[in-house]
Specification:
By secondary structure, the chain is mainly α. Helix content is 56%, strand content 2%. The termini are far apart. Pfam families: DUF6493 (PF20103), DUF7824 (PF25148), DUF7825 (PF25149). InterPro entries: DUF6493 (IPR045472), DUF7824 (IPR056726), DUF7825 (IPR056727). This is D-tyrosyl-tRNA(Tyr) deacylase.
């Protein structure tokens, strides 16, 4: 039986596969499944040619396997293969005639989740007629929505299936441009009931369709131009649509509700139930439209206004002045003063803007808003709370390693390396059983096409360690050989591609990600050698405190170990340890250095821990001294280091300071305004004592792991920021997922680090305040809030960066003003004072008025009112100039009076 299948496949006798399968029993077909799977793998292997590639199997061979799979497998084994067999409809029909699988109906019904199918609505109708499929409404609606030309072909389509389409359309964007004209035509011909379709369009607002599908139904409703009589009949559906999560749907409902407010049948009280949620929306057009409908209701009928008025108080959730002003005018004009109204507004009193408060004087207590004074917390990089928990034994390590694989980057990676050094030789016949799932996870991870570079090193190390354990514990780890063999086979199929880099084999020979990863690879090789030899000398560079710090005391103790054991540390490990050492309280550890260390170790740390000292002693390891100097005092040039031969490294890389400017690219319409930062080119020069830093600055290509390097240079982040800015932040309109991911990861790492910013830190933070991604901007605001609380934020420097960007309109001002209103205003007295400084220095950079400058000035006026201060004297000259602009005249005069 297997031999016959092999023969049909090898001789490509596609016409013989169906007669062969017909003569088999159900049990025999089932027994063929493993063979079919094996043959499928063989013919699906990729064969590379000089100019292209193809699969190992021919078209006939693929057809043979497709048919055999369909006939012999159950639904679970057949999987979600919605295209291969069904390309040849005639052949599929013949197979279904003599052997329709019992799972076929469920299989077809499940196709609504498929990205692509080779069958369509008409095929499903044909199969349903023959009894092969019992189609669910979801299936018919989904497939019909992909093919408008079928609408008037079959009687049941318009009678039944079209309404399924309204309830269960495709999850993609199925509605091509001919859809709406066709629906309009069929409604005009009375083939589709107009009233029912209008109702279905409104019901779409709350059916959890995606944005595009919901939008299509809203467009359909608008194009049909419902009359006021129709709108009154559909009033319940219009009201229900106000609860939609899609702003387009809500705005559509509001536009049409406004038309029927004058009608006696309009349900004002029902609308008032929805009003608080509408006014709390983050979408300004929804809030503005809701206020327009509310005002029209008041104009129509002034009696029984209190409930609607109390609901209207929710408008003051918004910190937009135009919204608050409009709401205040409606209240003042239509709602009498009452205790209930005062109570309703009191809940929002702290949020009512200073410019709006006078208009509501009768309704609210017009006292000055008192914010809490926040006691600044001392910023501590090293504390008991931030101390890391390392694995304490082999069993702990086995539970920790999967976490390290799942969380690529250096935090878990470093602790995993330290654990492997300590406990690699601690396995015994009992505990070693815990290693198999770790080995399996490492193999599964490394077998992927795209693997994080730190995972390549860690997984390779785990796999090679597992192969060494297999020699010691062949019985307990007997499955490792099978897992490894399968992983090697998977990798062999990918090695045919020129872009694939080998990840299995001796760790020295694998590709781990280019120049930037080379130091980590060398340290990983060093660690693996220690594991095999049983050398338990600790790595110097393992962090002691989250997220990336080494305490000065721990560094001294580790150097002492190497000194006492007379063991030479790895050069790059020493440099990485120095780079990660917290410089917060190093002077406290000078006595410890004096007491415990001698020779070069002692002289190195005395220099490193004392910012006022000069380097002394024998410079046996120039790379250590240079790294210590760059980390401790990046701006300083040490005469003593001149003979080291590092003077060919551009000074930007040593200081972390780069020249930058925001430029108007008048000739480039695609990038009208750019952030231009000059990053010199650097090619790695081979030296006896290579700097860890050199590998990173020599990396020229885009590198997805760049944010991870922040944990290796936490004291000197300028080079990391410069790379991210140059690659990902040169233009505010950049929308690629890759760049957004890099910027977000960098911002989140900076937030975790809680370290005062340097020049490049302020450039990065000021730039992401204006980023197109809301989450990135929110992270920037969180960093600002925390740094202000710790009294380590220089708002003049930050304001200068944002102002220089916005002076040329690098990004829409609205991004920044929305962030200020929603996250930074009225947090505390200190934050309001800091915000005043920030806005002052942003405005001082401005020259001619920019789009939405009024919005910044409005917020500035609000902050001055909260702080009971007046506009900066250096700014008044600009305000006097700007007031000649008609749109700025009023706010400039208000600020000049302050």
């Amino acid at each position: 039986m297997k031999e016959r299948l092999y023969e049909i496949l090898n001789e490509e006798k596609a016409h013989e596969i169906i007669p062969f399968l017909k003569q088999l029993t159900a049990e025999e077909r089932k027994s063929l499944v493993p063979t079919i799977k094996k043959l499928d793998r063989e013919i699906s292997k990729i064969v590379m040619t000089k100019n292209s590639y193809h699969t190992a199997g021919s078209a006939d061979q693929h057809s043979i396997i497709d048919i055999a799979s369909f006939v012999c497998m159950d639904q679970k084994h057949y999987g979600k293969n919605y295209w291969s067999l069904f390309r040849d409809k005639e052949k599929t029909g013949k197979i279904l005639e003599w052997g329709c699988p019992p799972w076929f109906s469920d299989f077809i019904n499940d196709s609504i989740d498929a990205e692509f199918t080779a069958f369509d609505y008409q095929d499903i109708l044909g199969w349903a007629e023959k009894g092969y499929v019992q189609p669910r409404p979801e299936l018919l609606g989904y497939h019909l929505s992909l093919q408008p030309h079928h609408l008037d072909k079959f009687p049941e389509t318009l009678e039944t299936h079209f309404w399924y389409l309204c309830e269960f359309p495709s999850k993609s964007l199925p509605f091509t441009r001919e859809w709406l004209p066709l629906v309009q035509k069929l409604i005009a011909e009375n083939k589709i009931e107009r009233k029912r379709f209008l109702k279905e369009c409104l019901l779409a607002a709350n059916r959890n369709f995606n944005k595009n599908v919901t939008g299509w139904f809203m467009d359909a409703f608008n194009i049909l131009k419902p009359s006021d009589e129709e709108l009154i009949l559909l009033q319940d559906e219009l009201m229900a649509g106000l609860a939609s999560v899609q702003s387009k749907a809500v705005n559509t409902m509001l536009v049409h509700l406004k038309k029927i407010v004058p009608a006696a049948e309009f349900k004002s009280s029902e609308f008032s139930h929805f009003l608080p949620n509408l006014l709390s929306s983050e979408v300004k057009t929804v809030v503005a439209s809701s206020l327009s409908v509310t005002e029209k209701i008041f104009q129509k009928k002034r009696a029984d206004t209190e409930n609607l008025g109390m609901a209207l108080s929710a408008a003051f959730v918004s910190k937009d002045e135009s919204i608050q002003t409009k709401a205040a005018k409606i209240i003042h004009r239509y709602i009498p003063v009452s205790e209930d109204m005062k109570e309703a507004l009191s809940h929002y009193a702290d949020n009512i803007l200073a410019n709006v408060r006078p208009g509501l004087a009768q309704y609210i207590d017009d006292r000055q808003l008192e914010l809490d004074v926040v006691d600044p917390e001392k910023l501590e990089l090293i504390s008991e709370e931030s101390k890391v928990q390392e694995p304490e034994n082999f069993e702990d390590l086995m539970f920790f390693l999967p976490q390290a694989i799942e969380n690529p980057g250096t935090y878990y990676y470093d602790l995993a390396l330290a654990g492997l050094v300590r406990f690699a030789d601690s396995a015994d016949s009992g505990s070693v059983k815990l290693f198999e799932p770790v080995f399996q996870k490492a193999c599964k991870t490394i077998a992927k096409w795209e693997v994080h570079h730190f995972n390549v090193l860690l997984c390779n190390m785990i796999i090679n360690y597992g192969l060494s354990l297999l020699e010691r514990f062949p019985v307990q780890l007997k499955n490792l050989e099978k897992i490894y063999k399968r992983t090697c086979e998977d990798e062999a199929t990918r090695e045919a591609y020129s872009t694939y880099n080998k990840k299995l084999g001796p760790i020295r020979e694998i590709y781990a990600g280019g120049l930037a990863m080379e130091p980590y690879k060398q340290i990983a090789v060093h660690v693996f050698d220690k594991m095999i030899s049983g050398d338990k000398a600790p790595l110097l560079s393992t962090i002691t405190h989250e997220p990336c710090w080494i305490s000065p005391e721990a560094l001294v103790e580790r150097f002492e170990f190497y000194q006492n054991e007379n063991v030479k540390p790895h050069d790059l490990d020493v440099q990485l340890a120095l780079q990660r050492c917290s410089m917060e309280r190093t002077s406290d550890s000078l006595s410890l250095v004096d007491e415990k260390l001698k020779g070069e170790y002692k002289e190195l740390l005395l220099f490193f821990f004392n910012k006022n000292s000069t380097p002394k002693g024998k410079f046996e390891h120039p790379s250590w001294w240079m790294t210590a100097g760059i980390t401790r005092s990046p701006e300083k040039v040490f005469e003593e280091f001149k003979e080291f031969g590092y003077d060919d490294i551009p000074k930007e890389f040593l200081t972390g300071n780069y020249d930058w400017k925001t430029i108007d690219s008048k000739k480039n319409s695609y990038y009208p305004v750019e952030l231009n930062i000059r990053v010199p080119k650097y090619h790695l020069k081979k030296r006896p004592y290579q700097l860890f830093l050199e590998y990173f600055i020599a990396e020229q290509k885009h590198f997805s792991e760049t944010p991870s390097f922040m944990w290796s240079f936490p004291n000197t982040l300028g080079n990391v920021f410069a790379k991210i800015i140059k690659d990902c932040l040169f233009y505010s309109g950049i929308a690629e997922v890759y760049e957004r991911g890099l910027v977000l990861n960098t911002a989140q790492a900076l937030h975790q680090m809680k370290k005062p910013l340097d020049a490049m830190g302020y450039l990065f933070l000021g730039t992401i305040f204006l980023d197109g991604d809301k989450v990135i901007r929110g992270t920037a605001a969180e960093i600002w809030l925390e740094h202000v609380s710790h009294k380590v934020m220089d708002n003049e420097r930050l304001g200068r960066v944002i102002g220089l960007h916005e002076k040329l309109e690098w990004a829409p001002v609205k991004r920044f003003t929305d962030l200020v209103q929603h996250q930074m205003l009225n947090v505390s007295k200190d934050h309001n004072l800091a915000l005043e400084q920030l806005l002052t220095h942003i405005l001082l950079q401005m020259e001619t008025p920019v789009t939405n400058l009024k919005k910044i000035l409005d917020i500035y006026h609000e902050v001055l009112a909260l702080n009971q201060s007046e506009a900066d004297k250096n700014l008044k000259e600009k305000l006097n100039t700007w007031k000649d602009n008609s749109s700025l005249k009023k706010i400039c005069n208000l600020l000049l009076k302050k």
